[in-house]
Amino acid sequence: MHGVFKRQNERAPARMGRLSVLPVFFSLEDKRVLVAGGSEAALWKAELLAAAGAQVHVFAPASELCADFVPLIENGSFVHHDEGWSAEVLEDMAIAVADAACEDEAKAFHAAAIAAGVPVNVIDKPEFCQFQFGSIVNRSPVVIGISTAGAAPILAQAIRRRIETLLPASLSAWAHWAQTMRASINARLVAGTPRRDFWERFVRRAFDRPFTQREASGLFREANSIAANPDQMVGRITLVGAGPGEAELLTIKAVRVLQAADIILFDDVVTGEALELARREAQRIRVEGSERQSICEQMIALARSGKHVVWLIAGDPTHDRHADAAIDRVESEGIQVDLVPGVVIDMAAKLAFNAASAERIRPECMRSVA
Questions:
Q1: C-alpha R_g of the chain
Q2: I need a surface site. Which of 60, 138, 156, 200 has the fewest CB within 10 A?
Q3: Which comes out higher in pLDDT, residue 130 or 17?
Q4: What is the spatial distance between Cα 89 and Cα 96, in angstroms, rounded to a whole number?
Q5: Are residues 104 and 181 in the same domain?
């Protein structure tokens, strides 16, 4: 059989664009790692490695340890070796990190680690690094690493702050629960729609509600209900305040709901930028000019097919009598309905005016300070 080769311009498009680095995650539980140096920078890397469960061996003369290193060594967080590193100590290490005092030491440490087959990082010297420590969002067992490949570390920190605002603190507890219950849940639910529906419900609850044993028990009951009635799954409806429709004026909770939606109903007040914040796979349906009653019936029909339907309503639905009527109608059909407040349009106009005023004033302020 002859191989079939395509010319360069005939190849199928790549499924993934070019990556500057490959994001990988080391499992370091009970693995021996080496940190060379006693500086503040070395300490921070040692703490990260210890947090991942590694046995951290610190090689540095006691006289070179920074003040914060000492109590952590005394309480057993690290194993201290009162000497500098050598090529011999690199054997059997899972990772090697150094805060090198000079270029020659960095080069020697890098070469010794490579010879020993140990992944190496020399702090603040990317030319001697096989891997980098990115900015971290920690909701363990959910861990998010952010890298700019050294191009702009401050940008990575800014991205981390943005992500932190979107991920509830209780996500960690929900992830632990999923880790513990996954085998039991999957044993109850057949693969395919029932199992996928349950885990989508899990994701929605993890983002929408703080973890409590009561919430976890309720979710487990939902798994039993799905298992007993796999062909009678009912979705849910969420009315979300879109304010004036601008992405920047959506609440954090509104964004979370959009990212968990299957179908989004919206009108012309909602901007494309706001819709971009939704889950990519979500279906978007424009309802401009539709009667409120017909929109409500449309949502009910979609929810009965097992979908999570979101209706983006201009302004704040908590101040909308039509929203109250829609909630009553949906609940009368036994469908779960939630309400997410939005920015009142009058208030949004004031915020926009203040922002515009700030833009006009800022140059004046800068000149007066200079």
A1: 27
A2: 138
A3: 130
A4: 10
A5: no
Pair (253, 347) in one structural domain: yes
Half-sphere exposure of 332 (CA within 13 A, CB side): 8
Measured on CA atoms in the order 360, 361, 367, 370, is the torsion positive or negative?
negative
Pair 247, 220 in one domain = no
Q: Which residues pair with 58 in a beta bridge?
A: 35, 80
Q: Describe the strand order of the beta sheet including 32-36 as a list of residue ranges.
A: 79-81, 55-59, 32-36, 95-98, 120-122
Output the CA–CA distances (angstroms, integers) from residue 79 to 45, 46, 49, 83, in the order listed.
Answer: 14, 11, 13, 12
Please identify, among 232, 253, 270, the residue that sits at the C-terminal boundary of a domain.
Answer: 232
Q: Report the C-alpha gap between 107 and 109 in whole angstroms.
A: 6
Burial of 259 (0-12, 13-18, 19+ CB in 10 A): middle
Q: What is the Cα–Cα distance from 53 to 336, expressed in whole angstroms?
A: 42
User: What is the Cα–Cα distance from 50 to 35, expressed in whole angstroms?
Assistant: 11
- Average pLDDT over the chain reads 86
What is the tally of structural domains in the chain?
A: 3
Residue 18 falls inside a structural domain: no
Same domain, 196 and 212: yes
Name the phi and psi angles at 336, rounded to 5.
-65, 135
Q: Are 247 and 276 in contact (CB under 8 A)?
A: yes
Read off the pLDDT band of 195 (50, 70, 90): confident
| Residues β-bridged to residue 264 | 284, 310
Residue 306 confidence class, pLDDT cut points 50, 70, 90 = confident
Residues 313, 239: contact at Cβ < 8 Å? Answer: yes
pLDDT reading at 191 higher than 60: yes
Indicate the residue among 184, 206, 232 that finishes a domain: 232
Residue 266 β-bridge partners: 286
CB hemisphere CA count around 30 (13 angstroms): 0
Instruction: Please give the pLDDT value at position 10.
Output: 47
354 shares a domain with 313: yes
Q: What is the pLDDT of residues 238-251, one digit of tens each?
A: 999 999 999 989 99
**What CATH number did the domain enclosing 95 receive?**
3.40.50.720
Return the structure tokens found at 358. Answer: 């700030």
Lookup: tokens for 339? 């309400």
The answer to whether residues 338 and 259 belong to one domain is yes
In a domain, residue 180? The reply is yes
Query: Where in the sequence is the domain holding 36, given as residue range(s)?
Result: 32-133
